């Protein structure tokens, strides 16, 4: 069906004027052009909308019914246009972001602080989730944006590779450097082939991070002495801090602990270990103005943290 907004406005002008000629004059249109608009709508609907006489035109029963719909449609369109104009400059509404624990630790404070400053009417929710749950939360509409460590093609979601974040070797305070100075632990480096010298506590084999670590080790024929397997990231951090064993996690997972001197860390080199981070959202639901604004702020925050050296990572080309 090809009835457009102009046609609806022409139809309502004729209803109001009771005459095609007067309606054409009011709309500053040639009468034949307006008559064609009315004829086109009648052909599309397959009904006569007006009864014509030498005195003018009056709506038929179908015309009266169509008038009600046309006024409602145009009113909704006007409200929608005004709403969008307001939202572009002053967005409002709920925006929920699903973040893995490590991402939440490094992104939440700067992201929430800046969102509140820029958009007081936006109700930002940061939901900390295991990455495996983020796709389901997106598909169900419980969150609007998510960050994950794996792209799941064909899931009804869009995935964009935005960052590659460094993995670091973690040990008790002072083992690698003076961990009481923010970032000081990252002045030390350990070659990947030398990781076998460190007794390890790592996630179990089915854990996504363990799968990634094992891939690097197999590629370079390195075997690690694994003392125990623990999947919970907070417990891995506690075990490394207590000197029970070293572990390998993302820098974002432990930025606060390094800053507070609870751990020390070393960069893994030759090659370095990193894991991809993907931005994901619904492939079918267009983002609201507020969601689009927060999504842009999220990427702006990521780039700023990396540029300032607060997050050892690299923005991918897709995330530039």
Automatic annotation (TrEMBL):
Ranges for the HTH lysR-type domain? Answer: 3-60
Q: Which UniProt keywords apply?
A: Activator, DNA-binding, Transcription, Transcription regulation
Q: Which Pfam families match?
A: HTH_1, LysR_substrate
Superkingdom per UniProt: Bacteria
Transcription regulation as UniProt keyword: yes
User: Do the record's keywords include DNA-binding?
Assistant: yes
Family, as annotated: Belongs to the LysR transcriptional regulatory family.
The protein in question is named: LysR substrate-binding domain-containing protein
Query: Which species is the source of this protein?
Result: Cupriavidus basilensis
